[in-house]
Amino acid sequence: MTDAPTSLLEQIQARFGDAILSAREALGQYTIEIALDRVLEVCKALRDEKAFKFQQLIDLCGVDYLSYGQDEWETESVTDQGFSRGVLGEGPGRFAWDNRPRPEGIPNRFAAVVQLLSIENNMRLRVRYFAPDDGLPVVPSVTELWGSANWFEREAFDLFGIVFEGHPDLRRILTDYGFIGHPFRKDFPLIGNVEVRYDPDKGRVVYEPVSIEPRVGVPRVVREDSRYLQAQNEAAQKAN
């Protein structure tokens, strides 16, 4: 006779079996990944069954895993390459699409991530499910289970282009009317595609192609600096 599952992840894996593609704990956070065709089934049980009772959806967001875990910057130490570290980097937006960076261990590019709370059992759970098609990412809507998902799913649709099948009113919520593209995608240009200005001759706001040149700012480098040490020593001497 085997021991009964004790931890939340053990209970979930025992209850749902192969519907759970992965389950892990990191930094005190429980995370499970659900097979796409089982999302509504599993989420309904997580909401209703006494062992779980995740009756509150705290947050839902989209994630773009393009180039996930890859860094074009040298930020832990000083180098002699200067500004070219950023300009010559191959980060999102500056690569040929056929040679786009693909993260290891991530099955698809787009995912929806849900944060759940069980007040009754004093537990939190992070739920993730991937869209199988990177070109047209589609995942099921959970609005029928948690009404609070409505605007969150609209936001993920607007910013990432993730389509939530079954959503009652899926349309943009943050970007302007007629906006083209999804600004939180990794390959969306940081300067955007268009700019707006008021045209006094036409008497209205007009849209034009963006006129500024793309550039990459050099991030701050965390490093030891004698000036800061001197200031700390002086402050300590005054305190004494």
Architecture blueprint of SSEs:
Blueprint: H1 8-16, E1 20-26, E2 29-34, H2 39-48, E3 56-64, H3 84-87, E4 110-118, E5 123-130, E6 138-140, H4 149-160, E7 163-165, E8 194-199, E9 204-209, H5 226-239
Parallel strand pairs: 2-5, 6-7
Antiparallel strand pairs: 1-2, 3-4, 4-5, 8-9
**Biggest sheet character:** 5 strands, mixed
Low-confidence stretches: 83-88
Spatial shape: extended
> Number of DSSP strands?
9
Helical amount: 10-25%
Helix-strand makeup class: alpha/beta
Average pLDDT works out at 84
**Content of β-strand:** 15-25%
Radius of gyration computed on alpha carbons: 24 Å
Distance between the termini: 66 Å
Spell out the helices and strands N to C.
HEEHEHEEEHEEEH
Characterization of the model:
There is one protein chain. By secondary structure, the protein is an alpha/beta fold. It is built from five helices and nine strands, in the order αββαβαβββαβββα. The strands form three sheets. The chain has a five-stranded mixed β-sheet. The protein has a two-stranded parallel sheet with strand order 6-7. It is extended and about 60 Å long.
Please describe the structure with a list of short key phrases separated by commas or semicolons.
240 residues, alpha/beta, 5-stranded mixed beta sheet, 20% helix, 24% strand
Summarize the structure.
With 240 residues, the chain is α/β, with parallel strands linked by helices.
